[in-house]
């Protein structure tokens, strides 16, 4: 497989695009029969398609590996405290909005990646995806502050 990137036109059309300057400066290509041209074009497109599919598969695997390094695969336990990432309000700068709110408590686990959380027993429950949660860490008492 060729390691060089292919131009989009050759991927779509099976050949390099010829610009007007190419037509002026280059001598015309040797004419080939229509049936011969179609069979060569079909072969080039099949080869290009296979190369692109393989590169897409490799890149997809690479992106999945990078995502999985940072993904929370362990999940949370019922009763554990978490910080949910709130939805952004339109019209406000994201810098000025809260990044996390809570802490909330995990009430139930609906499936592998969806949890039902609640801020306190009287509060309304929320259903949240695991990607919007981070573990809650108790604040450390200030040691050495008088």
How is the secondary structure organized here?
Layout lengths: L7 H6 L6 H6 L8 H37 L10 E4 L19 E6 L4 E5 L7 E4 L3 E3 L11
Antiparallel strand pairs: 1-2, 1-5, 2-3, 3-4
In short:
The protein is an alpha+beta fold and 146 residues long.
Feature tags:
single chain; 146 residues; alpha+beta; SH3 type barrels; five-stranded antiparallel sheet; 3 helices; 34% helix; elongated
Characterization of the model:
By secondary structure, the protein is α+β, with helices and mostly antiparallel strands. The chain folds into 2 domains: about 10-70; about 80-135, SH3 type barrels (Roll), CATH 2.30.30. Helix content is about 35%, strand content about 15%. It contains 3 helices and 5 strands. It has helices at about 10-15, 20-25, 35-70, and strands at about 80-85, 105-110, 115-120, 125-130, 135. It has a 5-stranded antiparallel sheet, with no helix packed on it. A hairpin with a 7-residue loop joins strand 3 and strand 4 (about 125-130). It is elongated, with a radius of gyration of 28 Å. The chain starts with 7 loop residues before the first helix and ends in an 11-residue tail after the last strand. The mean pLDDT is about 85.
Shape assignment:
elongated
How many strand segments? 5
Strand content is 15-25%
Q: In total, how many domains does the architecture comprise?
A: 2
Most strands sheet: 5 strands, antiparallel
Mean pLDDT across the residues is 85
Count the DSSP helices.
Answer: 3
Q: In which order are the strands of the major sheet placed?
A: 4-3-2-1-5
- Structural class, judged by helices and strands? alpha+beta
C-alpha end-to-end distance: 68 Å
Radius of gyration: 28 Å
Helix content: 25-40%
Query: Which oligomeric state applies?
Result: single chain
Unreliable parts? none
Q: H/E series, N to C?
A: HHHEEEEE
């Amino acid at each position: 497989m060729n390691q060089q990137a292919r131009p989009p036109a050759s991927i779509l059309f099976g050949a390099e695009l010829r610009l007007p300057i190419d037509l002026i400066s280059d001598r015309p290509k040797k004419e080939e029969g229509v049936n011969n041209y179609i069979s060569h074009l079909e072969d080039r497109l099949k080869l290009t398609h296979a190369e692109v599919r393989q590169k897409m598969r490799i890149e997809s695997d690479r992106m999945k590996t990078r995502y999985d390094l940072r993904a929370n695969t362990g999940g949370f336990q019922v009763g554990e405290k978490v910080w949910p990432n709130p939805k952004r309000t339109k019209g406000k700068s994201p810098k000025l909005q809260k990044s996390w709110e809570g802490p909330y408590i995990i009430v139930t686990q609906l499936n592998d990646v969806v949890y039902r959380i609640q801020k306190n027993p009287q509060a309304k429950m929320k259903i949240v995806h695991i990607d919007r949660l981070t573990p809650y860490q108790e604040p450390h008492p200030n040691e050495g502050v008088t």
